[in-house]
Amino acid sequence: MYKLIFDEEAIKYLEKLPKSISKRIFLKLQICKTNPHRYFERLVGRTEYKLRVGDYRVIADINDSKIVIVVVRIGHRKRIYK
Fold it and tell me: Which SS3 state, helix, strand or coil, does residue 67 take?
């Protein structure tokens, strides 16, 4: 099972969201810990991966050698890629 590590920016954004949405994102990340490549999709031209949770996206780095998922950013789908 992979270990989740959150960047400080991702934690701050998650705390600003309504409780229902932040809980939904966190539960989805917990599900992804068993097999992240099943849920995450690689971004084109980048080394990061994205996870879709409704209108929100989770940008993360997956390190298979260390068995770690580093959540870099969380944001609304309109503004996350800018």
Answer: coil
Q: Report yes or no on 8 lying in a domain.
A: yes
Please answer whether residues 36 and 62 qualify as being in contact, where contact means their C-beta atoms are separated by less than 8 angstroms: yes
CATH code where residue 58 lies = 3.30.2310.20
pTM: 0.91
Q: Contact, 51 vs 43, CB < 8 A?
A: no
**Between vectors from CA 50 to CA 46 and to CA 53, what angle results, nearest 5°?**
165
CA pair distance 13, 28, nearest whole angstrom: 16
pLDDT in tens, 69-82: 999 999 999 998 87
Q: Take residue 79 and report the two structure tokens written for it.
A: 């503004």
**For residues 61 and 63, what is the distance between their CA atoms, to the nearest angstrom?**
6
